[in-house]
Design goal:
By secondary structure, this protein is mainly β. The chain is 10% helix and 42% strand.
């Protein structure tokens, strides 16, 4: 009897339903970030230095917010600030390890301290990691409680692990290719996935992708026909992006998906390199030097929804090199000076507008009415699809009994909320 009631209620609601609201998409914003930086950004990370989570930015800039910063800076949501005098060369990667922000790149000093391309910031001062390395570091990642770096440093095979006292090589490291760099790390499936421009690991063939299981550095499943610049997880799959045309023989233009069994393309991919990935709200964001994604005009940034590619406004006027997510917002950094047709110096933000909290208002238009029905029903039947349909408007607006999710127990309160507004 109860099932029959639920089905009848859903059918009734669907017969009354209408499309979701128009304020569901994130908008481009430069706003308080202005004037941004005076030169390109390569890395973004969210880090809490004891004063709350903030955005940290690394790259090749001397100024942020008009003040001297030295290639790395903090944005706290209101203003820019320096990390003492910063570092004396470009920053290419950022991550958080043992409550410290780790910066890597091609610099020798952080503040007045000699660090040799790897440094830690604790919110007040810089610290070194041993003697550092002898050449550029491009990637940094924490895996299984340990810190790893990768790049093109010849003293320890272009990939290394911090053992608490020194940088330790991973076997014979990364070799092969004209420029055997490590560009990206990602923890996936219990291993550290390594992406780059190499052709060998420990002298075994491994084109563009490898893995470290805590003991051994070995080839990953298959090979990438080019360079890997970025790695991410999306819907449980490994996403690999960069500058390539295939993944283990499967045609894939600059971006591919590994599902644990085989490699797959994401539509027709992009027409040029992908440098950055970020997943949030059921969407996979990609940034790079491309101008089309899936055949759709998309200037340097686009998103994949699991079935197709979509542009984000007018995009940017030059390449996107870094992405970071915070709550429902997506920060972008790169070589661009305009986003969505407006001035935006090397950094911008895709953010959601603020909405009044109103139970049952599933499209965030300020009223609980029949326009909210479609998304409420979708939240009952397919929550991921419902979240994707209106990423800026929380599904929990349909959780009228405060159970933590939208269930059939919310049907009657939802109907009551609609009727009370008529």
């Amino acid at each position: 009897m109860r099932n029959a009631f639920v089905i009848a209620a859903i059918e009734l609601l669907l017969s009354l339903g209408r499309a979701v609201g128009q304020d569901c998409e994130p908008d481009w914003s430069f706003g308080d970030l202005a004037p941004g930086t005076n030169a390109p950004i390569h890395a973004l990370a969210i880090y809490d230095d004891g004063n709350g989570p903030a955005l940290f930015v690394g790259g090749q800039f001397a100024l942020a917010g008009g003040q001297p910063v030295g290639n790395i800076a903090k944005w706290d949501g209101t203003s820019w600030s320096a990390l003492v005098t910063g570092v004396n060369g470009p920053v290419f990667g950022l991550d958080v390890f043992e409550s410290q922000l780790i910066a890597v790149g091609n610099f020798s000093n952080a503040g007045a301290l000699t660090v040799n391309r790897v440094a830690a910031w604790n919110g007040n001062a810089w610290a070194a990691f041993g003697g550092g390395v002898n050449a550029t570091v491009r990637a940094v990642r924490v895996f299984d409680g340990e810190l790893f770096i990768g790049g093109w440093f010849t003293n320890i095979g272009s990939i290394a692990r911090w053992d608490g006292f020194n940088w330790a090589p991973l076997g014979q490291g990364i070799t092969g290719g004209a420029f055997p760099y490590v560009y990206a790390f990602l923890e996936y499936g219990g291993v550290l996935v390594v992406g780059g421009s190499f052709t060998q690991v420990n002298h075994s063939p491994a084109m563009g992708i490898a893995q470290y299981d805590g003991a051994n550095l070995t080839p990953y499943y298959g090979w990438i026909g080019g360079y890997v610049y970025a790695l991410a997880t999306y819907n449980g799959d490994l996403i690999v992006a960069g500058d390539f045309i295939s993944a283990t023989g499967t045609p894939a233009n600059n971006i591919a998906r590994w599902d644990g069994h085989g490699w797959h393309a994401l539509g027709t991919g992009t027409n040029d390199s992908v440098f950055a990935l970020a997943a949030i709200g059921g969407r996979l964001y990609a940034g790079g030097s491309f101008t089309t994604a899936g055949g759709v005009t998309a200037a340097h940034i686009a998103y994949w929804d699991g079935a197709g590619w979509f542009a984000i406004g007018e995009g940017t006027n030059d390449s996107v090199r870094a992405l970071a997510v915070s709550d429902s917002d997506v920060f972008t950094g790169g070589f661009f000076t305009a986003a969505n047709g407006e001035s935006s110096l090397f950094i911008s933000e895709l953010d959601c507008p603020s909405f009044a909290q109103m139970p049952g208002d599933m499209n965030c238009d300020g009223a609980t009415d029949f326009d909210d029905v479609d998304r409420f029903v979708l939240a009952l039947l397919d929550p991921p699809a419902a979240a994707l349909s209106c990423p800026c408007c929380s599904l929990l607006r349909g959780d009228l009994n405060a159970s933590g999710s939208v269930t059939t127990a919310d049907l009657q309160p939802f109907v009551d909320a609609i009727l009370s507004g008529i």
